[in-house]
Amino acid sequence: MELELRHLRVLCAIADLGGVGRAAAALGYTQPAMSTQLRRIEGMLGEGVFTRSSTGMELTHYGAQVVGQAREIIMLAGNLTRLRHSRTSAPTRRLRLGAINTPVVPVLLDSLRDSFPDLLVSVSSVYATGELLSLLETGELDAGLGCDYPGLPIQHSPKLDHRAIRTVPVFVATPTTHPLGHRFEIPLEGLSEDTWFVSSDDRVGWPGAFYAACRAAGFMPAVTHEFHVLDQLQSMIAKGLGVAAVQPTVCPVDGVLIKPLAGDPLWQRHLLLWRRDLVDAWVVEAVHHHSVRTHCQLLAQAPHFQKWVARTYAPPRPSDGTRKTLHGPV
């Protein structure tokens, strides 16, 4: 047998009313049935919960701990029931969501609409994560999808909270005619003579992280364009006007290749940020859960990313010719 809520209620009733007979009457049992129930419960617990005295039933030291935890469990179970009723009758919730330029937004909004029809999401396009933080701090937005970079963790006031969605390497988009387009991965230094499209300051580390990676590769881009509108950017890359660092979730258009950078010199961490006082816990869980699922879905559909995963996490071949198995998520 396993302990159930009804067993915990029996213990609490006996503790509150001080006797088996009074507890039986309160819960609708006969006294013999209640006594039998108590013996079974103490048998399951392996130790006595009550001792009999001249004044009634008294808790043992162990029993006081058991009943204390039983009360917490009963309270939490009641909260779950009330939560179900409140969610059923709750008015429509609204969420003002800001999002940086990322391909996940359309899929995420579609998923949230299907799974949480009583949550109305209005989305605002925000280029810079730094601007997103400002809008959250002032209460103009409730939550946001932003990013930061390894070694440059995001900073914000106690009004806000954040949770990681996914950390991924930054890839590069080139025209299909690029001389290095046949390579599985492209060394950053191999792009030293290219014109780069570099998006503007996001106030949390970009493009500083990009230029630091270029310096480590031994060059600085001679010609750059400041540009971040994804559709137009890919059109210009397809025409051979330059290359750009992109998220691996980006789906290339005709004339564009998306490749990993050799050695993965750039990484980006995607985040969910929210105002603690404006967003309910269940909304945070819903948006975070579907954000993670959307990232995973888009990455699973991106051949360039899956090739990178296969190459990067391929198990080495032991000398005996057998093949090791890779464990754990990527």
SSE order and pairing:
Layout: H1 5-17, H2 20-27, H3 31-45, E1 50-53, E2 56-59, H4 61-89, E3 93-99, H5 104-115, E4 119-125, H6 129-137, E5 143-148, E6 160-169, E7 171-175, E8 196-197, H7 208-216, E9 224-225, H8 230-238, E10 243-246, E11 256-260, E12 267-275, H9 281-300, H10 303-312
Parallel strand pairs: 3-4, 3-5, 8-9, 8-10
Antiparallel strand pairs: 1-2, 5-12, 6-12, 7-10, 7-11
Please, could you describe this protein's structure?
There is one protein chain. The chain has 330 residues and is of the alpha/beta class. Helices cover 41% and strands 20% of the residues. The chain has helices spanning 5-17, 20-27, 31-45, 61-89, 104-115, 129-137, 208-216, 230-238, 281-300, 303-312; strands at residues 50-53, 56-59, 93-99, 119-125, 143-148, 160-169, 171-175, 196-197, 224-225, 243-246, 256-260, 267-275. Strands 4-3-5-12-6 form a 5-stranded mixed sheet, sandwiched between helices. Strands 9-8-10-7-11 form a 5-stranded mixed sheet. It has a two-stranded antiparallel sheet with strand order 1-2. Strand 8, helix 7 (208-216) and strand 9 (224-225) form a beta-alpha-beta unit. Helix 1 (5-17) crosses helix 2. The longest helix is centred in the first third of the chain and has 29 residues, at 61-89. The protein is elongated and about 95 Å long. The two termini are 41 Å apart. Residues 320-330 have low confidence and may be disordered.
Highest CATH level, the class of the largest domain: Alpha Beta
- How many beta-strand runs? 12
Gap between N and C termini: 41 Å
* Number of domain units: 3
Roughly how many Å is the radius of gyration?
29 Å
Overall mean confidence score, pLDDT:
88
Q: In what range is the share of β-strand residues?
A: 15-25%
How much helicity do the residues have? 40-55%
